[in-house]
From TrEMBL:
<dbReference type="GO" id="GO:0016491">
    <property type="term" value="F:oxidoreductase activity"/>
</dbReference>
<keyword id="KW-0560">Oxidoreductase</keyword>
<dbReference type="InterPro" id="IPR016169">
    <property type="entry name" value="FAD-bd_PCMH_sub2"/>
</dbReference>
<dbReference type="Pfam" id="PF01565">
    <property type="entry name" value="FAD_binding_4"/>
</dbReference>
<dbReference type="InterPro" id="IPR016166">
    <property type="entry name" value="FAD-bd_PCMH"/>
</dbReference>
<dbReference type="InterPro" id="IPR006094">
    <property type="entry name" value="Oxid_FAD_bind_N"/>
</dbReference>
<keyword id="KW-0732">Signal</keyword>
<dbReference type="InterPro" id="IPR050416">
    <property type="entry name" value="FAD-linked_Oxidoreductase"/>
</dbReference>
<dbReference type="InterPro" id="IPR036318">
    <property type="entry name" value="FAD-bd_PCMH-like_sf"/>
</dbReference>
<feature type="signal peptide">
    <location>
        <begin position="1"/>
        <end position="23"/>
    </location>
</feature>
<dbReference type="GO" id="GO:0071949">
    <property type="term" value="F:FAD binding"/>
</dbReference>
<feature type="domain" description="FAD-binding PCMH-type">
    <location>
        <begin position="62"/>
        <end position="233"/>
    </location>
</feature>
<keyword id="KW-0285">Flavoprotein</keyword>
<comment type="similarity">
    <text>Belongs to the oxygen-dependent FAD-linked oxidoreductase family.</text>
</comment>
<keyword id="KW-0274">FAD</keyword>
<protein>
    <recommendedName>
        <fullName>FAD-binding PCMH-type domain-containing protein</fullName>
    </recommendedName>
</protein>
């Protein structure tokens, strides 16, 4: 693909931009003005729109201040932006889609953020039942488009989650036991490569890239459209139930049993977590139950529903959209996460609850405002998830190596202020490491990290297994031979910095 700019346009674009906030040096001027000269919309620090886009990142930890924000409106404009930045400037850049990641893999300080937020439409083809979803979309908009057609796709369980990062990282949904990971339901990716070429990756065209994008995230190019196979979907039965933490032993027993039996009722989905709530100054247990077939209180949930004395319940028949609106997390915090995976062993659950209590006690004793929120969350990952993935062409997540049902962990800590963020990072790392040390000591550790939940000190790509690491490396080298998305777009987990050993 030829560069879209004539020499005269390039020369004028490289001129200084006096009086424009964010253009304080020639490097900044050349990067941002080159994009403007190429016809890509650019916004600068000091403008209301720049402030709004910066503050719209879900976690304060990702709210950086790039030199400018580029806002393409089409795949062609994304191509123009990439070619302009790569060929005519030396600046680094970041790619933002929904902006829900918990560390700034999707933003940059010393460089340009390419913000796909204006590319946020969803269209639906009733004949093929394919939903075409653009990368700046969030799942709320996707479900709003699909609900009137009585169809859906496997997507985020919180409506504000972005589409692109969720899908390229795998994507666990209410429908995983029926459909596999969300990425396994993508039938085509439209991708802008580093040289500006726009290609499709699917089961027949660029099939190696198609498989690698299902879990390989930001190592190959920029996905500008996701075509997903939709399916008929009745309203779900679901909601959120809160319990006193004294019911913990019953919940652990119920979840161990649930994980062992997911394959016996693939309509079911259950997330359970222990959460410190600042308004209560205590820990509660929160459970999200869903039946994607709309079956009310199906027998699979019997053990959970038999736990007495819940504090509140919103269980009802509702749409996919309504249930995902309910599972939103508070905004405005600095969010620190950690993830790991364990065997379905009751002893590890009990150890995690003990460690979580210690974390909450520590944070409460030193927090200057008492305003912090935790989650110690369990999510079943049965082998049936990967079986569905293999049937649909495979992904690079590496969970097909597991021969028994396992449990994915998510530990979160939301705090205020940079000092508390530093404390939280240290404590969350200790929490996670102590968990895996204990799990290893009883042969209950699993070498897999979910990339969508991992924090910057983790190394999830390395946990995919040598065969998948090799696939991702080969695809990155083939489709981005100059390594643009390894070096010039440094955010996220890069395959060139991942080995086969988990850090």
């Amino acid at each position: 693909m030829q560069h879209p700019l004539s020499p005269g346009v390039v020369a004028s674009a490289l001129l200084a931009c006096p009086g424009v906030a964010g253009c304080s040096n020639s490097t900044t001027s050349s990067c941002c003005q080159a994009l403007e000269g190429a016809g890509v919309g650019v916004i600068y620090p000091g403008s209301e729109l720049y402030g709004n886009r910066t503050e719209s990142y879900w976690s304060v930890t990702s709210q950086l201040t790039p030199w400018c924000i580029a806002q393409p409106t089409s795949a062609q404009e994304v191509s123009t932006a990439v070619v302009t930045l790569v060929q005519d400037t030396s600046c680094q850049f970041a790619i933002r889609s929904g902006g829900h990641f918990i560390w700034p893999a999707n933003n940059i300080e010393e460089g340009v953020t390419v913000d796909l937020g204006l590319m946020n439409a969803t269209t639906y083809d009733e004949e093929t039942q394919v939903a075409s979803i653009y990368p700046g979309s969030r799942w709320r908009g996707v479900y709003e488009t699909l609900d009137p057609h009585n169809v859906t796709v496997p997507g985020g369980r919180a409506a504000s989650v972005g589409v692109a990062g969720f899908l390229t990282g795998g994507g666990n949904s209410f429908y995983s036991a029926r459909k596999g990971f969300a990425c396994d339901n993508v039938v085509n990716f439209e991708v802008v490569l580093a040289n500006g070429e726009i290609i499709n990756a699917n089961a027949t065209d660029n099939s190696d890239l198609f498989q690698s994008l299902k879990g390989g995230q930001s190592n190959f190019g920029i996905v500008t459209r996701f075509d997903m196979q939709a399916f008929d979907a009745p309203p779900l039965w679901g909601g959120v139930v809160q319990y006193n933490k004294t019911t913990g032993p019953q919940h652990i027993d119920a979840y161990v049993d649930w994980t062992n039996n997911v394959q016996n009722d693939v309509n079911g989905s259950t997330i359970i977590f222990w959460s410190y709530q600042p308004a209560l100054k205590d820990i509660v247990i929160i459970a999200a139950y869903e039946d994607t077939g709309g079956n009310v209180a199906a027998p699979a949930f019997d053990q959970f529903l038999a736990i007495p004395g819940n504090l509140s319940s919103t269980m009802r028949i509702a749409s996919h959209l309504e249930l995902t609106n309910e599972l939103e997390q508070p905004t405005g915090y600095r969010d620190i996460w950690w993830t790991g995976t364990i065997k379905n062993d009751k002893r590890v659950y009990e150890k995690i609850i003990e460690l979580h209590q210690e974390l909450c006690d520590f944070m409460a004793a030193q927090s200057p405002d008492g305003d912090f929120i935790t989650q110690a969350m369990f999510q079943s990952i049965p082998t049936i998830f990967s079986q569905h993935g293999e049937e649909k062409g495979g992904n690079v997540l590496g969970l097909d190596r597991e021969t028994e049902n396992v449990v994915m962990l998510l530990f979160t800590l939301a705090v205020n202020g940079e000092e508390q963020q530093a404390v939280a990072q240290e404590q969350m790392r200790k929490f996670g490491e102590a968990t895996m040390e204990y799990a290893s000591s009883i042969d209950a550790a699993v070498e897999w990290e979910y990339i969508n939940y991992s924090y910057d000190y983790q190394n999830p790509l390395a946990s995919y297994g040598d065969a998948n690491i090799a696939k991702i490396r080969a695809a990155a080298a083939k489709y981005d031979p100059s390594g643009v998305f390894q070096t010039r777009a440094p955010g996220g987990y890069k395959i060139t910095r991942s080995s086969g050993t988990v850090a």
